[in-house]
Design a protein that fits this description.
Strand order of the largest sheet: 3-2-1-4-5-6-7-8
Helix content: 25-40%
Strand content: 15-25%
Number of helices: 6
Structural class: alpha/beta
C-alpha cells in the first residue's frame, strides 16, 4: 500500500477528492495533509476524515526557501510518503526539493499544459480565444509546471465565460482527473489519462 502526503494552501477541495478516492481496492492511502498556511480550511477537512495534519508556515522564513523546505522535508519524512500530491500548494519549490522527491511528486494545474504555466490560466485561455480549457496532472520537476503530463481533462470555453465561471467548470474535472491519475500512478502506471 502506497503512502500519500498531500500539500495544500487553502480549502483543499482537490485534497478531499483525492482522500475520498483512496478507499477499498485503491493501492494508496493518505497519511498526511500538510499546509504552509496556518488555519487553511483543508486542514479541518482532513482532520474530520481522520488524517494527520501538519503546518509549516512559510512566512517566518522570509525569502529563505531552503530553510522553509528543510522544515517541510522534516515533516514529510516523519510521515514516510511514497507519493506527494500538491493540491493547491501555492509555493514554488526549489530544484533541491523537487530533486529530493523526484519521480514521486504530482501536481494538478488548471490549464492544458504546456499552455499557460503559472497563474491566471483561465483569464489567459479566454483572452487567447481558446475553444478549450481544462486541467493537467503532471510530475513535478524543477521546471515550473513543466514535468511530464500524466493526465488531462478538457472543458469547452463558452461564449460569455469569465475566469470564475470557467474555473468552476474546470474544478469539477480536476476532482475527477486527479484521483484517476493517482490511482494509476500508485500502481506504477504512468500512461496518461484523458478525460473527455
Amino acid at each position: 500500500m502506497k503512502r500519500v502526503a498531500i500539500l495544500i494552501s487553502g480549502g483543499g477541495s482537490n485534497m478531499v477528492a483525492l482522500v475520498d478516492s483512496m478507499t477499498g481496492d485503491h493501492p494508496a492511502r493518505p497519511v498526511l495533509v500538510l499546509s504552509n498556511v496556518p488555519g487553511a480550511g483543508g486542514l479541518e477537512r482532513a482532520a474530520e476524515r481522520g488524517i494527520a495534519t501538519a503546518v509549516v508556515d512559510h512566512r517566518p522564513f522570509g525569502t529563505d526557501r531552503e530553510a522553509f523546505e528543510a522544515r517541510l522535508t522534516g515533516a514529510l519524512e516523519t510521515a514516510r510518503p511514497d507519493i506527494i500530491c500538491l493540491a493547491g500548494f501555492m509555493r514554488i519549490l526549489t530544484p533541491a526539493f523537487t530533486g529530493r522527491w523526484s519521480g514521486r511528486m504530482l501536481n494538478i494545474h488548471p490549464s492544458l499544459l504546456p499552455k499557460y504555466p503559472g497563474l491566471h490560466t483561465h483569464a489567459r485561455a479566454i483572452a487567447a480565444g481558446d475553444a478549450d480549457a481544462g486541467c493537467s496532472v503532471h510530475e513535478v520537476t524543477a521546471e515550473l509546471d513543466g514535468g511530464p503530463v500524466l493526465g488531462q481533462a478538457r472543458v469547452p470555453v463558452m461564449p460569455g465565460d469569465t475566469p470564475e465561471t470557467l474555473a468552476a467548470r474546470v474544478l469539477v474535472q480536476e476532482h475527477a482527473l486527479y484521483p484517476a491519475v493517482l490511482r494509476r500512478f500508485a500502481m506504477g502506471d504512468r500512461t496518461p489519462v484523458h478525460l473527455p
